[in-house]
């Protein structure tokens, strides 16, 4: 048995923790769900472990007319809801709340009184402005920060996705923010890159010669990248209907994961070396235009069904009107490089599916008959080896391989699996993605953030698909809530003799 979390966390060598320097962290849109569910709990965890100093300031900014004490109470309630019982210590929470401040301010109003915010900011500190607001406000807020003299040489800005809704709007945002902040001080956040298992893809590949030597079309037949959700659009229906699954998940999260899986070995682990390798993959994606959009993509909306024993309405029922916005997207991509020639990369994401899971599935080619391999040795043909990288939940790796069937007196084969659960293996809590990302912005470390050319390269590839869907070149399919997605997505893979991974050995 391995120790309970509180025990093994206390056993960690605290000398490994280096506190960041005192900072002022301003969160625009602080009354929203992201701040309460993710950002404030992330800061709390890093305060609890000693990385956030007691002299730091976390300043929430929103239009709501709240006193500081009321915002602190909301923060307390958020920590009670979203911090596990093993880590929720009332005394530590009280100490953390001393860092939390609030300013009532309409950041979109250029005539508003910014003196309350200005009074809380201390010269000489790292100053981070986090935009948890609508992207259309990014440039306007930056311009007002500049006009009020609040941008210092130690200032950074963190931009939440989506960076635009297409290439043109992404370029407008990049150029608008870039007027006031240099590229090295712009941190475009994609929380998938903050997930330990996603970062671990590089270690898995480049630190293990067995895998690195087999990481190519010669040995790999396909790659699947999945981000499935059980929840529907719920209170975000109005926002989601202007976005859809392709913009919300594929353009950023899934393409970022694809670029890490497919990139060439970077020259170093310096931020720009890694991001150069990633953007090279995005540039090498074969464009999907014209008829290729219909042949290689699927879009769908969830219909009424049952999720975990509970009846739920369909997307259009929740929305209250007709819509051509997809809640499910599947795309077959190919990368035109020698390493990946002919290997399909299947991307899929959807809401109201049977389970919440994000994973990468690498399918290796089985031994071929007639070659000097084991294919002809055994009465039952070997099955393809699978490497499954679980991003969430239960972060870890599963390896499926062929073994002799112990129930057979001959040499029939049977699939066996080896599972590594990282939290158990390393005996420590796996942090939420935002924990590292929030403090990397303070440190000025951009390796897990997205560079401007990455954002624009991803939009260039996605935009023809959006245009094809806008012309209704691809029919809108349906799938029952609580299922595994539309049949058309299964057919997309079946044409190549593939099938979506279901978790079965």
Automatic annotation (TrEMBL):
Catalyzed reaction equations: D-glucose 6-phosphate + NADP(+) = 6-phospho-D-glucono-1,5-lactone + NADPH + H(+)
InterPro entries on file: G6P_DH, G6P_DH_AS, G6P_DH_C, G6P_DH_NAD-bd, NAD(P)-bd_dom_sf
GO function terms (MF aspect): glucose-6-phosphate dehydrogenase activity; NADP binding
Pfam families according to UniProt: G6PD_C, G6PD_N
An example Gene Ontology CC term for this record: cytosol
Residues that hold NADP(+) according to the record: 63, 161
Function in brief: Catalyzes the oxidation of glucose 6-phosphate to 6-phosphogluconolactone.
Record family assignment: Belongs to the glucose-6-phosphate dehydrogenase family.
UniProt name for this protein: Glucose-6-phosphate 1-dehydrogenase
Lineage start: Bacteria, Pseudomonadati, Pseudomonadota, Alphaproteobacteria, Acetobacterales
């Amino acid at each position: 048995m391995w120790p309970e979390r509180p025990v093994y966390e206390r056993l960690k060598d605290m000398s490994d923790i280096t506190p960041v320097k005192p900072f002022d962290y301003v969160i625009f849109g602080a009354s929203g769900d992201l701040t309460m569910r993710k950002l404030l709990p992330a800061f709390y965890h890093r305060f609890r472990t000693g990385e956030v100093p007691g002299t730091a300031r976390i300043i929430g900014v929103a239009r709501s007319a709240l006193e500081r004490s009321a915002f602190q109470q909301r923060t307390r309630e958020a920590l009670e809801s979203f911090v596990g019982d093993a880590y929720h210590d009332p005394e530590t929470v009280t100490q953390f709340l001393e860092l939390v401040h609030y300013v009532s301010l309409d950041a979109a109003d250029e005539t508003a009184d910014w003196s309350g915010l200005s009074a809380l900011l201390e010269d000489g500190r790292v100053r981070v402005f986090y935009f948890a607001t609508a992207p259309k406000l990014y440039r306007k807020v930056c311009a007002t920060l500049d006009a009020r003299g609040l941008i210092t040489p130690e200032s950074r800005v963190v931009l939440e996705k989506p960076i635009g809704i297409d290439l043109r709007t992404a370029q407008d945002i990049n150029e608008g923010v870039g007027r006031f902040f240099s590229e090295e001080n712009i941190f475009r956040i994609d929380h998938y890159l903050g997930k330990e298992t996603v970062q671990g893809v590089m270690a898995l590949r480049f630190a293990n010669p067995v895998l690195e030597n087999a990481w190519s079309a010669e040995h790999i037949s396909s790659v699947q990248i999945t981000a499935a959700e059980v929840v529907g659009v719920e209170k975000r229906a109005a926002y989601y209907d202007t976005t859809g699954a392709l913009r919300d998940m594929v353009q950023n999260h899934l393409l970022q994961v694809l670029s890490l899986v497919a990139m060439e070995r970077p020259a170093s682990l310096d931020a720009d070396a890694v991001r150069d390798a990633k953007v090279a993959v995005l540039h090498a994606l074969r464009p999907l235009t014209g008829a290729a959009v219909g042949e290689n993509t699927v879009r769908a909306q969830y219909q009424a069904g049952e999720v975990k024993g509970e009846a739920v309405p369909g997307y259009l029922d929740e929305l209250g009107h007709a819509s051509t916005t997809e809640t499910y997207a599947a795309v077959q991509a190919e990368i035109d490089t020698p390493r990946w020639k002919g290997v399909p990369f299947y991307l899929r994401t959807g809401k109201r599916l049977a389970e919440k899971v994000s994973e990468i599935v690498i399918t290796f080619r089985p031994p071929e008959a007639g070659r000097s391999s084991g294919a002809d040795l055994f009465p039952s043909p070997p099955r393809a080896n699978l490497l499954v990288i679980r991003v969430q939940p239960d972060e870890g790796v599963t390896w499926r391989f062929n073994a002799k069937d112990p129930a057979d007196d001959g040499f029939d084969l049977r699939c066996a699996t080896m599972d590594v659960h990282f939290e158990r293996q390393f005996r420590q809590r796996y942090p939420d993605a935002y924990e590292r990302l929030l403090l990397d912005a303070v440190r000025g470390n951009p390796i897990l953030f997205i560079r401007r050319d990455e954002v624009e390269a991803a939009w260039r590839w996605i935009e023809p698909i959006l245009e094809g869907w806008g012309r209704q070149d691809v029919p809108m399919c349906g799938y029952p809530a609580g299922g595994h997605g539309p049949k058309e997505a299964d057919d997309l893979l079946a044409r190549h003799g593939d099938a979506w991974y279901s978790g079965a050995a």
